């Protein structure tokens, strides 16, 4: 652009000079006779010099511009590099932070394991840990308790949401763990406690022997979140097919577990639903299938783009209907009337 302008100026100047020369010509014709050839050549020479000067001026100007441009580019590159250095510093800080966090978690586990356990202060859930001042969310190892007849168990505690004290019983967020599993696997639990998992029906039964609250947190692929809470939640033991009982819904996601109230648990090899269809096989999970679903939190994890095309996804009809598979789910319990 600037270069074009300069050439326009140059052409303009050249024209001006030519015009001047042209204007001078009549006078020069009146001047004492000179060899015409020499006159012409003098003028030509002077024009040539001027053109040469202009050309060199132009070159100088454009060189200067290029230098300016180079300077700007250099500055941009420097800024870019500073940016990158800053980013690297942030990343480093983040990884240091999570390392420290991990160490804190390990310390928590160790303190917990060395703490003497008696039947009166049994620590069999995250609410009990919270009362003992473990207030950082993360993985904890609950010790074996002969009095309660409970085995050692790794749990993930949410010590922040709505007062904390929550023991997670399920999580979906990574999508690599299949939830299309059999009765035995749903009984004892599967997956990884920091990723996707089912805590196990026997463990959920034990946790909810004390009157408990269930909280379900959902996130869609646009990053929006909703929750459903049931003031009362319990499941039966294996003899009772882990039958679900809930009451007192609150929240903003819709009451999509109510339809599953009072139904037995089903898996792909144990059809306990209230339907001619085999819901666990149709919906590809283990759940309290009725006929079949108003929610399917143990369904198939579908990634963005694939998440609206199937009816066996991770669904909550009360929010996104029957064919929208959610991005993230957490199910968590704590004793009714828990006081932070
Ligand atoms: C051309 O440049 C020379 C030296 O750079 C200078 O002496 C001369 O006066 C210039 N002529 C014009 C017409 O600008
Ligand atoms: C539901 O909430 C009401 C009012 O708070 C309470 O009286 C009732 O006991 C609760 N139901 C259950 C099953 O906890
Ligand atoms: C649930 O399972 C129990 C036994 O585990 C059975 O007696 C009951 O009929 C079942 N209920 C339904 C609705 O299938
Ligand atoms: C579940 O069923 C019981 C009756 O068995 C009822 O008292 C309770 O309110 C129901 N829960 C919900 C959320 O509707
Ligand atoms: C949901 O997906 C099924 C295929 O799995 C399709 O038959 C059905 O029409 C879809 N329903 C809606 C409401 O998009």
From TrEMBL:
SMART domains referenced in this protein's UniProt entry, alphabetically: FBG
PROSITE patterns linked to this entry: FIBRINOGEN_C_2
Superkingdom classification of source: Eukaryota
Domain Fibrinogen C-terminal per the UniProt entry, residue ranges: 117-337
BP terms from Gene Ontology: blood coagulation
Signal sequence residues: 1-23
GO cellular component, as recorded: extracellular region
Main location: secreted
Pfam (any one): Fibrinogen_C
Keywords: Coiled coil, Disulfide bond, Glycoprotein, Secreted, Signal
Coiled coil feature spans: 44-110
Annotated protein name in UniProt: Fibrinogen C-terminal domain-containing protein
Location(s), subcellular: Secreted
Upper taxonomic lineage: Eukaryota, Metazoa, Chordata, Craniata, Vertebrata
NCBIfam families attached to this UniProt entry: GGGWT_bact (NF040941)
